[in-house]
Hints:
Blueprint: H1 5-27, H2 33-36, H3 39-45, H4 52-65, H5 70-81, H6 87-97, H7 102-109, H8 115-145, H9 151-170, H10 181-210, H11 213-223, H12 225-230, H13 235-251, H14 253-261, H15 268-297, H16 306-314, H17 317-354, H18 363-388, H19 395-407, H20 410-418, H21 424-447, H22 450-455, H23 458-461, H24 477-501, H25 506-515, H26 533-544, H27 546-560, H28 569-599, H29 611-624, H30 630-648, E1 652-656, E2 662-665, H31 667-673, H32 677-680, H33 690-701, E3 706-713, E4 718-727, E5 738-744, H34 746-791, H35 796-823, E6 835-838, H36 839-851, E7 860-863, E8 870-873, H37 875-892, E9 898-905, E10 909-915, H38 946-956, E11 960-965, E12 972-979
Parallel strand pairs: 7-9
Antiparallel strand pairs: 1-2, 1-5, 3-4, 4-5, 6-8, 9-10, 10-12, 11-12
Helix pairs in contact: 1-10, 3-10, 3-15, 4-15, 4-17, 5-13, 5-15, 7-8, 7-28, 8-9, 8-17, 8-18, 8-19, 8-21, 9-17, 9-18, 10-15, 10-17, 13-19, 13-24, 14-17, 15-16, 16-17, 17-18, 17-28, 19-21, 19-24, 21-24, 26-27, 26-28, 27-28, 34-35, 36-37, 37-38
Amino acid sequence: MTFSITQLFSIGFIYLTVLFGSAYATEIGLLPRALTHHRLTRVLALGVFAGTICFNGTLGLASQYGASYMLYFLGASAAFVAAPILLAPICRIALTHKLGSIADVFAFRYPAPWVGGVVSVFMLIGLLPLIALQIHAVSTTVHLLNQEFSEDVLAIVFCSTMTLFAILFGAMHLSTRDKHQGLVVAMGLESIIKLVALITIAIYAISEVFGGLNNMNAWLTQNLAEHYLDNTLATGPSRTLLLLFFAAAVAMPHVYHILITENEDNNLLNDSRWGFPAYMLCLSACIPPILWAATYLGAQTPAEFHVLGLGLTAENREITILAFVVSLAAASGVLIVTTLALSSMILNHVFLPLYTPKPGVNVYSLMFYARRVLIAGIIFLSYCMYKLLAEGQNLTSLGIVAFVAVLQFVPGLFGAFYWRGANKAGLLAGMLLGYLVWFATLFYPLLSDIFYSNLITPAALGYQAELYQPGLYELKESAWHIAAMASLTVNALGFVVFSTFYKTTREELRAANNCLSDSFHRPLQGQLVAQSVSDIQTGLESILGVDTANREIRFALEELALEPDEKRTHALQQLRERMESNLSTTLGQTIAHSIIDRFVPFSKSDDAKGSETVYSIESRLEDYQSQLTGMAAELDALRRHHRRILQELPTAVCAIAENQNVLIWNAAMEDLTNINAGKIIGSKLNSLPDDWFLLLDGFAVGPETHKLRVPVSSEAAELLVNLHKASIDNIPTSGGDVVIVIEDMTDEHILEEQLLHNERLASIGQLSAGIAHEIGNPITGIACLAQNMKYETEEQEFHFLSDQILEQTGRVSEILQSLVNFSHGGREETRKPYVPVDIKQCVAEAISLLSLSPENDNIIFNNGLGKQCFVLGHAQRLSQVFVNIFTNARDASEPDSVIDIAGVVTESTIAITITDQGHGIPAEKIGQIFEPFFTTKDPGKGTGLGLAIASSIVQEHQGSITAIPSPIGHGTCITITLPYFARLENTLD
């Protein structure tokens, strides 16, 4: 059965149209985002790993080694099931620092200009056989279906089509920040097509060819059972093959490209740990039935092409078409994604470091076209490799050559994430030694099998003669097992030995701390030369240009949620790191690191050895908490407990580094200074307001460890603080850091001033009592003389004068008695009975007394009380109430203000309101104004007793007193409520 070339091209065109269409529909937004960005879509896209080796190579393995074909599926699945070993660390560091390729990972961990280039070139050389394998499989498949055209022509058509697709849907963006979502969807759809087609062919083999599972089992028992049990790989080659496929799933560029480069979901690896093995398990289950059915029918095709031979032998066109589509899908996926990944690696790590653009050249446009040329160039080199292959070349051997090449990257990857002492010298030595062995034992013979059969005898290599077969390059298992293990061994030994004998640089240690799974990300210990965001931008403008530098700075600030005026040291270091990560998405890690290291450098001095490290470790610990276990988790919990105690201390605490960076600023310090900790921690001390900077700077560098009663100005008020200092210079990494404890003594000072004032008042009170007693005797004598004078004469004038003298002496006696009462705490020695008192008259007397004061300031008192405002009480004490309230109202009012006094009489009470137009009393303090010694006046200007005495007198008269803000919007309104005289028939004692 044959197909015309038109039919084959039509089938291929339909498949590629579906593939192109899905990618195009995704790019223009026709497909819903919920579908294109679903995790299942991305997991399915990882099925790109299942290339020609999966569908053709495993058939050859199964035919030759029976159940050992499962090693391919088990090895690849193991890489994802055991993701924490390598894939998880790679994903963590790659997604954090936006490393777009496996070469970027090596360049990041082993910082040197040549590392990325060496890795890229070695990877390209190693994978040329793999890409050639895909071309070979498709051209052979088509040639089996139609012999009108040579395999070379078919290979050229396939390569041209794949080049077009890769350029259109895989190279539209330079930066890996811009994802090629269309490519991901296309690869996911391709994986579905491969799985569905292979399952369909397997079901056909069981149901139609054998007639059911029982018949297939019976045939196996009679014909192939012993063959599959006996013809299995030995233990050594089996383990080697398992390791090769494990390494391929970890280090292959096309797996990295789908899993990381085109991924924006940090949780994809978690889903892939079960999704990818499940997908591979489904594929693996289809291989034996297809192989057995083709063998049962006597298919004449090579075992590797039995998936096609089954349909041809059974003369089933539908199954043959499905097999053709499977072969086309498997080869195209690997070829496209591998080429894209390799083109980015070569562009960023080989082309850009070697190319110096001329002035005026648009570098981004040049890179855009250069990548397209590289895609075409890599596919052309693969075609050349395909042309060098002998006709009928074994696909499995080609795949093993590529997988052994990829295996050489595994020691460097393990060292990157598990050995702090690994360095670039060890990496280069190990890879060179490993690749030399690989080249001599596998790659060179692949190009010229005559090399083994004619020029070098097997005995010269130390191998047995049957290990190599002349003609076609088809290795027996002992050959590739020895070659793989020898290359890996010398690679690992060279890596370890050279890393041990060559000193690890400071940059390599920094990168190691980032990569190691048990380490925290610590930036370089040092001070940036740039002191602000604008300094960083100025440095980058000279290499990137004004527009590009501005765009990258703005983008990085948005990602980090920082302000353009940021000056904190740790924030600037975060910005520097983010800029390097962002630039690496476009220019690669090598060029990005070179640009940042040159134009945003660290200072050569070691001014700041501890501050950035302390802050950065704290930050990483916060992010790393969920990953800590055992003793590390307990220590972190203890650290958090101590930090919480420090943060919640009622005393203000701050820590200042030797370079004057602020390390600690607890909550009490925030309250005291009104400065947010997030804005000051990591900043220089001179970023504080002047008063606080002068205070802390002088104390931090001064010899004193204690300072008492130091005045400092705050936004709210003048403060008085005690300062205490302790140095932590006994810690090697802390230098001359100091911890400062600040006690706010302002309230205590105010209380002390009030206490002293009250003591003076008490002394005056005691003195007043004595003076009143001494004055009382002469006054009594004057009153007696006045009475006698009244009785010794009949003249009215003398009587009038005598009455005036008696009235005034009586007034003086009452004043003296009040003074004595005040000195005794307001308690009268003998209580007088209550009498009806005219409140309006009391108010008038109080106004009259205040009008005599020189502090009157033309204040107008508006007495609006009526004539019937009577209560039972002591007129003198009630007058004192109004004097005290009016005095406070006057002191709070502006000159020429009006104070209104009004009254409302009910059947049982009389309410007197006093409303001023002063500055008012804060709402949070208005409830305290009747408490003893509370005052809103400055110390020395008020005793805090006036309203307290007034409240006490009102309560003695069975009344109440309240204060509220004035209804007119400013000032205060005080209301006094007393029992109305009309409701009381008898006087109260």
